[in-house]
Amino acid sequence: MDPIVYVALGMVLAAGIAGVASSFGVGIAGAAAAGAVAEDEKNFKNALILEGLPMTQSIYGLITLFLIAMVSGILAGGFRFADATQENIIKSVILLGAGLTVGLTGLSAIPQGIIASASIGAVAKNPKTFTQGVIFAAMAETMAIFGLVGALILIVTGVGF
Amino acid sequence: MEVNTITRILDTTLVVVFTWIAYKTGSMIYKYTPYSYPNARIRAMEARLFTGQRFDELAESKTLNNFVMNLEDSDYKPYLDKLSIYTAETIEGAFDEALADTYSLMFKILPKRVSLFFRLLLEEWDVRNVVAIVKAKLYGEVARDYIAELGTMVDKIKAMAEAKTMEEILVILEGTEYEETYHKLLLKEITLEEFETELYRMHYAKLLRYARSRKDEERKILEEFVKLKIDRINLMTILRAKLHKLEADKIRPFLIPGGSLNQRTLNILIHVEDLSMALAELDSTRYGEIAREVREELEKGNLDAFNRALERFTRRKIKELTRFYPLSVAVPLNYILAKESEIRKLKAIAKLIEDRIKPEDIKAIVGELP
Fold first, then answer.
1. Which residues of A touch B29 (CB under 8 A)?
2. Torsion of CA B354, B356, B362, B365, to 10 degrees
3. Which residue of B has its CA nearest to A116?
4. For residues B143 and B160, is the Cβ–Cβ distance under 8 A?
5. What's the CA gap between A10 and A17, in Å, rounded?
6. CA B349 to each of CA B16, B47, B84, B270, B337: distance values in angstroms, whole numbers, following the listed order
7. What SUPFAM superfamilies does the record point to (chain B) (predicted)?
8. 3-class SS letters over B1-33
9. To probe the interface with B, which of A2, A125, A143 has the most B CB atoms within 10 Å?
10. Looking at chain B from residue 342 to 361, which residues have their Cβ under 8 Å from any Cβ of chain A?
11. Cβ of B36 and A1 within 8 Å?
């Protein structure tokens, strides 16, 4: 494949996988939120906060997309690795790896949505468990943050601005 | 290595990794997403279940009117509002309707792959009602007093309760799964006790068949639930028989297959000489803990204590499953058990208030109910 394909794939996968995962995560937690609110409107505030947690992965994906586009020159209107030399392919693959790292770790939005969904249930039963619920759901976020940090290191050290 | 080779390896790796991820993600979504809405809703409903304090307050009601007024802010209000007079019987009817609606709600909101189980659970009330009516008719009592307006064939049950002859009941049961067994009873091919056991056997066989047709944790949870129910019936049958010093051959036909106690344990239990030995034998099973807990009461011949302990054990086990599997069918099962318990207590309070029992005594009686 040409270097442009790897770079484009890196951008698409970072924002795409993380975005899809976020939408599933929010969907799962949102269904739970609807269930909790159907029984008692007072659950709305707590449910809304928990429901929003899986959205962050899509933001990491978007940040990565812009970074890859910037370092590869696409954002500036050109493409730095157009020639299929070994060096350019390696750099393109590094960018694909960075995108893939964020995209795959962004899949943590789905289990985060599942945790948030269970937490919404727990909070609906006992509102005092809200903080614990947020902490449990936020734990899944760690993987996405690791992924973003890893991708930044890959981009900066492997390709450079 | 050539550039082409490197890119080919990369492409293949990407395809393999993505296929695996898509499969794993898909199965995770399939497994949990359908429980998201119902379980959060059920948890919110759990928050409204009555506490011990609330039962104590209700027990303080001086009349049934006060009792109904104290339930104004509860989920039972719409059902109680329909009543024109307040008697223990009419209030019980309202509670039965509320319970029937709870089953229907579970059937409606749970994923299709498990919802039918709740319809099957509702059929247990059909079995209870059919048995109660037949018993009442045979003993010359008013059948209406023994039925709950709950189940999948309430109209037939009411018609059966009003039936003037036993043959009329057969006509009403025509086309149902109980017809053949009832026919045998009428022809005196089986006794009343055998008739009752056979209906329960058919019902639990159906529940088990359904549970075993599910997959993974759904199968595990549903099977555990049914097995706990079967064990409860079998243990009560055996202990009651041992209390009356019945022989093993007379107990065996009344056991229901499929529980978690294996055939060997059941055989030993029915062959032991008396209740104390049966309890000693239970010690090595999962029910050892509760056998020890109520041993004194049991040896005095109080089987109710063991029955209550078994009910509490079932609820504890299902509650444990809800902790292991928060997004699973364990949550609605736990809720149904809790709701049944709540309604049992409310019915008891209503009856005791009508009988003018002192609030302290009502609290004591209701406090002991599982």
1. 24, 28, 110
2. -80
3. B36
4. yes
5. 10
6. 64, 21, 20, 37, 19
7. V-type ATP synthase subunit C
8. CCHHHHHHHHHHHHHHHHHHHHHHHHHHHHHHH
9. A125
10. none
11. no
Using a CB–CB cutoff of 8 Å, tell me whether A58 touches chain B.
no
CATH number, span A3-159: 1.20.120.610
| Token pair recorded at residue B277 | 């030995």
Instruction: Return d(Cα A131, Cα A123) in angstroms, integer.
Output: 9
| Per-residue confidence (pLDDT) for residue B1, from 0 to 100 | 65
Q: What is d(CA B144, CA B161) in angstroms, rounded to the nearest whole number?
A: 5
Query: Given an 8 Å threshold on Cβ–Cβ distance, is B36 in contact with A86?
Result: no
Instruction: Mutation target for A interface from B36, B105, B322: give the one with most A CBs within 10 A.
Output: B36
A131 touching chain B per CB within 8 A: no
Spatial contact of A72 and A14, defined as CB atoms under 8 Å apart:
no
CA–CA gap between residue B14 and residue B370 (Å, rounded): 57
The closest alpha carbon to A10, from B2, B20, B10, belongs to B10
The two structure tokens encoding residue A75: 């954002």
Given pLDDT bands bounded at 50, 70 and 90, which one contains residue A24?
very high
The more confident residue out of A63 and B278 is: A63
pLDDT of B183 strictly over 70: yes
Q: Is the pLDDT of residue B227 over 90?
A: yes
> Which residue ranges make up each domain of chain A?
3-159
Chain B contact for A93 (CB, 8 A cutoff):
yes
- Enter the DSSP assignment of A129: G
Contact B121, B336 (CB under 8 A): yes
Q: Which of A36, A58, A56 is nearest to A45 (CA)?
A: A36
Residues 6 or more apart whose Cβ sits within 8 Å of residue A73 = A79, A80
Interface contact B326-A40, CB threshold 8 A? no
Report the sign of the C-alpha dihedral through residues B27, B31, B32, B37, in that order: positive
- Quote the pLDDT of residue B141: 86
Model confidence at A55, in pLDDT bands (50, 70, 90)?
very high
Contact A1 B11 (CB under 8 A): yes
Q: Map residue B49 onto helix, strand or coil.
A: coil
DSSP symbol at B259:
S
Q: Could you report the per-residue pLDDT of B341-360, keeping only the tens digit for each?
A: 999 999 999 999 988 888 88
Q: Is the pLDDT of residue B146 over 90?
A: no
Does residue B217 belong to the interface with chain A, where contact is any CB pair within 8 Å?
no
pLDDT in tens, B240-255: 888 888 888 888 888 9
Q: What is the ipTM of this complex?
A: 0.80
